[in-house]
Each structure stands twice: as C-alpha cells, then as structure tokens.
Amino acid sequence: MSKKKVFTTLLLLVFVFSFTLAGCGGEGTGEVDDTTIFTVARSTDADLIDPGYAWAEGDIDPVYHVFDGLLQFKNDDLDVAPALATDWEMSEDGKTWTFYLRDDVKFHDGTDFNADAVVFSFERVLDEDHPYYGVVQGGYSYLNYLMGDVITEVRAIDEFTVEIELEQKFAPFITYMAHYSQFIVSPTAVEKYGENFPQNPVGTGPFVFEDWRQGEYIRLAANDNYWGEKPEIDTLIFKVVPETSTRLMELQTGQVDAIKHIDPAQIYAVQNDDNIDLLTVPGANLFMGLINVTKEPLDDPTFRKALNHAIDMDALVDVIYEGTGTRAINALPPTVFAFDETAGPYEYDPEKAKQLLADAGYPEGTEIELASFTHARSYISQPVQVAEIIRADLQRIGLDVDINVVEWGTLTEMRQSREFDVALYGWYDVPYPSNFLRTMMLGGNQSGYEPQELVDIADQALATYDEAEQEKLYKELQQEYYEQAPIIPIAHSNYSAAVRSDIEGFQLDIMGNVLMHDVIK
Fold this sequence. Notes:
CATH class of the largest domain: Alpha Beta
Strand order of the largest sheet: 8-9-10-1-11-19-12
Structural class: alpha+beta
Number of helices: 16
GO molecular function: peptide transmembrane transporter activity
Shape: globular
Subcellular location: Cell membrane
Number of domains: 3
Keywords: Signal, Transport
Strand content: 15-25%
Membrane topology: Lipid-anchor
Protein name: Dipeptide ABC transporter, substrate-binding protein DppA
C-alpha cells in the first residue's frame, strides 16, 4: 500500500473515531451537555458559609441558597411565610412559640430534617455546654446577638414539633425567625466537619454546596431533592470581581449573568442598556462614621457634635451616591417603623463646629484617625473617597486627620478591640427598629456607647407587643442619640443589582439580598 493510501486510511479512521466520541457525549449517554450555569459577580468573597456564624456581607448570599429556616420572608415585604415549618402559634402569655415542621425534608447529605435538627442548630450557637458550641472560629453568632438573652430553651416535643421558650415577650421574635441566622444545619455534617463546617456547608436549601476557590468563586449545584420548587438552573456561581468597572463590563459582554454592588456612576449606563435590567429597592441600611466613645477626645459629646457639624453631608451624598441614596438623619432609616424625622440632622456649619471645639478647649491640630475599608459594600460603593471628603471637611475646622485604609476583616478586628478613633461602618439587616436602635447602637457596634438608661428604654420597647408604645419609646431613643452624637450618620443607599434582560426570576429582596431560587435562563 502506498504511503498516500496509508495516510488517507489513517485520516479516515481518526475522523470516524472522533465523530463517534463526540456523538457519545459525557459518559456515553449520547446526550449533549445542556447544563445551565448562572453566574453573579460581586465585590467580595465569603469568609464562611454557616448561618450560625455568618456575619460579613459576602457570607449571606450563599447562606440564603444552601440553607432554609423554619420561616422565610416574602420577597416584597417583612411578612413571614412558612418554610421548614408549616404552621406556628404563640402561647397566651406570649413567651412560648410552637412550630410544626415539614415531614418530607432531607439535608443535602441524605439525613432527615426533624425537630432534633432544629434543637441542635439553635443549641450549638446558644448553649455553652453544647459539644459544638464555639467550635467555628472567625465568625460571629448573629443568632446569639439578636436573641441570645431572650431564648431560654428550644425543645423537641415530638419528631416534627418544636417549642421555643422565651424569657419574656419579645416583639420582633417571629420576624427574626425568618432571618438567616435561624437557618437549620445538618447535625451529621457539623459532627463530621467540626470547625471546618463553614467550608463544607450542608443544609436543606435549593442549592447544594459544591466547590469554593477562595477569592475567586463559590459554586453551588441545584438540589434535585429540594422539598420546594426545584431550581431551573443547574449551577449557581458567586464570582468575586472586586472592581466595579470590571463587574459591569463582564455583565455587558455576557461573561456573567448578574452583578451586585453597582457604582452610582454606572446607573445611567445600566439604565440605557437594552440588554440589562436594573433592580433597585430603598435601602434599610445605614452608612456612618462609628465613633469610639471610650477614647479622648471622642468621649466628649461636644467634640462628637463638632465632627457632625463640620461635614457637608448633603454635598457628600450628592457626589458619592448620585441619586442612589439619601442623607441619613439619624440611626434609623426612614423606611423603618418609628422613624423620627425631628431627631436630626446636624446642620452643616463649620463655624459652629470650630466654636464648639474652642469652647471645649480643643486646640487646632487635635489629631484623630479615620479608618476606612477598601471595597464596595451594599451601602457604599466608594468608601475611600468618602474618607477623603470627610478628612478635607474636618481639616477645615482645624483637626489633623490621618486616614487608615484596611481590609474589611482587619477593620472588624479593630472595631472589636476598639483600636480606632472614627471608623467608616455600615449596618443593614432586618428593617426592624430594635435592630438599629438597640442591637446596633447600644454596644453592638463596638463603639463603647451603652448608657444604661437607654438600654432600659430599648428593652422596654422589645418587651411589648403594643405598637403605639413601641413607637413612643423608639422615638425617645432617637432624640437621645441626636443629643449625644455617638455616630456620624452619613447615608442610606438604595439596594441595587443588575441582570441580563433575557433572564427571568432574578430577585432583589427588601434587605438587598439577591435570590436565584426562581431564575430561568
């Protein structure tokens, strides 16, 4: 046989063999891979994926998709709806709540969801004697933070009935029960992975944890055995893209399907792109300057008021938010019940600020440090630029201001140890007044501000189901905060996200979380 014929024969064999492999598809099924992948780009990665200890914004997106709670929020408001619990009731004294559980749910590891799993999930966070209490490091127990002093016992009545007993009436209890910190974990998985559970999360949610390359992406797969409506997409990816311009470019070119943390300067471009839909909701959040009231001269309310009067907040908000946020009057967002519009704002008056400093004996050149974080968060897209604007305003009244730019994790450590003067900080969560006026303001923000008389007022508001009494007490708190100036209120940002216009079912909820449960691509 000639060399030419040998070559031709070999070429034909290679072609036939290659065609046969292509026709077989993966694992010889004869099917073409039609996996649907949905990718959302955001500015930060998660620190840990565990509802009991999730704290950073990057943690919450995956937690909402891997885990479920007994209750869930409706997407358009704060009303709660059934989830792992089908029904619930309150005792006559308002201190015992009974939850009736679904009997057809399994965790992603194949183990049964039941009352014992609910008890385990609460006790590992609340009970210091529990064998897995405190095993997870580097997180923060938001459940303990919200209700650790209120919940006295969680007990299984039978396989699918749970009772939660409270120390006293607690007005936001049923609302907080839909919060992610109350989501249920697999006891078997916690026992298996121990301190590494947040890197190997197992819940009952619509998506199953698959892979996590730190600093790059988190990949989840659809839960084929989900108790609710099964996701339409097969794979969900949370991609880390720190730069705002890069996130938008990747959305415009179709490299990702949706983005979070949109720079206000990009809103116009998004609105005028026929291939992109913009989602926005008023933000129940607060971006502020957190003041360490345990340090001189910041322990003096007069000095703190001077800081507030020195900053041209209207101009700052106009420049930074460009119509995507509103100036904060006090600690409570105007979208939240019991907001008091008379408790602020501090008028921009640099001459008054100078006079306050002079009258209190603070000389020109008094030094303070302003700490800022690096990357965008849902309530601010340009934190470093904000720090620069604030420094310029404070320098105009004679203060010597040094900016310290650090990563969010480092700033968290600084706050917890109170190793700061003024730190840019934000708060967003369940839009309930106690969450801002009690949980955030009184000690919880690591500022050291916790007057007992104000704690007592806040606790009275928590212990009554009478809304008129709650409103009266919460407005009293706002007036006291205005007088004492423990923070520098800056702004409330709108929550925003953008998605390719051919995508259906992408949702942005009232707390700024993106939900992909119903996405169709």
